[in-house]
Amino acid sequence: MTYEGEVALNNIILRGVVGSTSHGTGIEGQEDRDEMGVFIEPAVHVCGLTSLDHYIQRDKPEGVRSEPGDLDLTLYSLRKFCRLASVGNPSVLLLLWLDEYITMSPIGSELVKMRESFLSKRCGEAYLGYLTQQKMRLTGERSRNVSRPELVAKYGYDTKFAMHALRLGLQGIEVMTTRRLTIPVPEPNRTILRSVRGGEVSFNEALKLINEAETKLRGLTEACTWEADLPAIDKFLTEAHLKYWGR
User: Fold this and answer.
1) pLDDT, tens digit, for every residue of 116-174?
2) CB within 8 A of 97, min separation 6: which ones?
3) Rounded CA gap, 18 and 34, in Å?
């Protein structure tokens, strides 16, 4: 194992299963295992010249599509994780709202407890941006990158790609409405998403659902006045590193 891998894996404060499995939209026996975690860098990588802000571990080589059961693990340093969360990155925010964790240290627990501090108008903008990009690829308005030709051959479109676009819209709406994210996706939205993924919904109907979610999310985001609590995040980061290094 590389030095970077040893540092990341030996200093984890929070780790959980993300992806379709956590959302409740996965199909048993067809999913890889997506995990995300947060680690604290040794002082030399925070105070010195060389940071160590992320580490990726995959069963398949980079660029090779994961198969059912393969592990895809992404670990972020606490500083990088908080930077991404503070600008509303949907993939990163997900880790703070899981219903269970593989690893949760006391500092990891503190991070989860302050999850609302990261929510802001930028969350809505980020969800909206990801949704719009995926919709444009789905419709061919941007380069259509088909990674699941078997779904296109069977249903006429990449149903998993469409499901993720709709999920982003529905989850963005929940965040912008309630200041929380329910994981797994609550009903009836979970059933709707699974129907799209299973090809029970036509391409036109799936696109209609995505457009409706996009319109509602855009309105909520434009009206939002929330700001992330950056002073609280900075205070947490400082205290967490000092506490961890002094253990």
Assistant:
1) 999 999 999 999 999 999 898 888 776 655 567 777 878 888 898 899 999 999 999 99
2) 115, 180, 181, 182, 183
3) 5
- Model confidence pTM above 0.85: yes
Residue type, 159: T
φ, ψ for residue 14, nearest 5 deg: -155, 135
What residue spans define the domains of the chain?
3-118+228-245, 121-223
What is the homologous superfamily of the domain 3-118+228-245 according to CATH?
Beta Polymerase, domain 2 (3.30.460.10)
What gap in Å lies between CA 163 and CA 23, rounded to an integer?
11
pLDDT for the residue 150: 79
Residues 89 and 127: beta-carbon distance below 8 Å: no
Q: What residues contact 215, with CB distance under 8 A and at least 6 apart?
A: none
Which residues have CB under 8 Å from 152's CB, separation 6+? 146, 158
Per the DSSP assignment, residues forming a β-bridge with 33 are 71
Sorting pLDDT into bands at 50, 70 and 90, what band is 33? confident
